[in-house]
Queue: 2 jobs
Job 1
Amino acid sequence: MMNDLDQLAIENFREYLRIPSVHPDVNYDDCVTFVKNQAASLGLPVQVYHCFPNKPIVIVTWIGREPDLPSILLNGHMDVVPVFKEEWTHDPFGAVMDENGDIYARGAQDMKSTSIQYLEAIRRLKMDNVTLRRTIHVSFVPDEEILGAEGMGAFVKSKEFEELNVGFALDEGAPNSVDAYRLFYGERNRWAIRIHCPGQTGHGSLLLDNTAGEKVRKILDKFYDLREQEKKKLDDDPSLNTGDVSTINLTVIEGGVQNNVIPSEFVISIDCRFAITVDLEEFEKTLNEWCEEAGEGVWIEFEAKIPRIPPTKLDETNPFWMAFKKTFDDMNAELQPQIFSAASDVRYLRAVNIPGLGFAPMNHTPVLAHAHDEYLNKDIFLRGIGIYYKVIPAVANVEEIPTQQ
Ligand SMILES: [Zn+2]
């Protein structure tokens, strides 16, 4: 038998899932209305900020007993990635719950579940007359799935964000198929590189020198040798995750006009995500050498070159981590600290020296973020509310002001 609170939590979750806040060109209006209604039902104030038109940042606030202390930010993004509807068993925006209690929808894992779990945990804490030392801000941000430049990326630089006085943040995590929960304390550095390889143009029947194709080949040899090494590291050591190694992939090749004409240029795009142990300055030197060796005129264009963002510390210098960890120890639940292999909005917070952890209370769940038939089981969802019921007070009642991370 489900109690009324559980019923309400599931209804709210499914209602949020039914809002098609899907890329491209997301209309966030219904999400904003939804969050405002949720805030009203919790008796909490809500603010809507805009760094860019039609890119709302919605903040629900629960004032703490000591509101001058740095606050806790519980972040979630409102947007979801596109769907291939014909590949789904159920309507991806129908939030159908099957007889197993699996709730199907785009965003069920990534990450509307987490946002609702924050709110439902707060609902229960308030009903139990719990008060917290620090203020809690629950943020609903746009555009995470398109890198967040006009969402969290812009918001962290605003005066309004500064006024929130955030001292610690929780953000999205990922499911785990086993009993332990994943915990992300850092991310790899992404570089999106375009390498221009110009060369001698001419008839395809000749053996000209200095052609674009020869340069592409030399560059790709270097990148793919490095890729092999990283793949071997990962294959040889089962304790490693993708986040522990660097990944390199050729993603776009541009150039050429027709089969019998040697082009004047090829441009290759390479997606590089560097393990946190890689010396980026050193790598850039190596990359420049590769380009020089490849031949005349080869040059690099950076589409993205994310500088090193230090991971959040998981030691006694971070009292929020200590409080978070203790909650799991007390529950006898295991955490698996990892470097996230992709990227999420929490990196913008870490980049402005706010410690942040990526976490989602989804164990015994297959990873279906961005996949067909994304779902979350209702029991896992409800258990997650219970986890935040303990985690939120733990981090919000931390006494010490953390030292610089
Ligand atoms: Zn996400």
Job 2
Amino acid sequence: MPKKPNSARAVVILENLAKTFGDPGTNKPVLEDVDLKIAQGEFVALLGASGCGKSTLLNLIAGLEEPTAGSMEIPAEGVAFMFQDATLFPWLTARGNIELALKLRGVPQPERGQRADELLKLVHLQSSGDKRPHELSGGMRQRVALARSLAQDKHVLLMDEPFAALDAITRDLLHEELERIWRHTGRTIIFVTHNVREAVRLGQRVLLLSSRPGKVIREWRIDAEQKKPEQAAVLANEMTAALRQEISRHV
Ligand SMILES: Nc1ncnc2c1ncn2[C@@H]1O[C@H](COP(=O)(O)OP(=O)(O)O)[C@@H](O)[C@H]1O
Ligand SMILES: [Mg+2]
């Protein structure tokens, strides 16, 4: 029987994590007392208002920023990151962008082509590998970016509002794709969003971040039953109310 996420080993552990930009004597912390344990294979959605510190938290986990206080454990191999903008190299094809990530990871040349084809297939782009980014739709570009972040072959994948710029139908499709890929690859995913429906749709656990300072103030565990439309709508309303209350503290 598969282990429940809360009984699985924690792969990301944050304790009393804090971050202040600039002089801590004069500037308010962006994040304070962030305590978080994320289990192997878990899909966690981090939900919070714009500017509350979601990207800062992901950047700390990714090692792109240094914490001001607290401690952090992440896998020794590091983590993979997918941003909101695909930032693909425009002069490379979809396959070329993925092969570059494989090259940077040290995969030898003869294996790269086959591995890139497998990844293109995984994101349903097997027939578009030779297209360059400007020939692809926004949704297709994000699929390439997803394949490229999977090419890094790290167990933990951080995603910072990767579908925020897409239209609703494309986003729904990508939610299905991402869920399938998560199940297929067994990755641990930390997915940042300000979209309540997206958080309920994807997360096994949704964490609500407060603003100024950002810390985890609420948590919902969501099982398959609660993802059914009626229950999901109730949960989404509850989260929206909590998010609104949090935003209204600051206006
Ligand atoms: N490099 C930085 N230097 C100074 N302030 C920053 C920096 N990065 C983020 N901030 C500030 O930290 C706060 C949180 O930003 P961010 O983490 O981007 O929020 P979110 O991703 O939730 O929208 C904002 O007030 C932002 O202006
Ligand atoms: Mg952000």
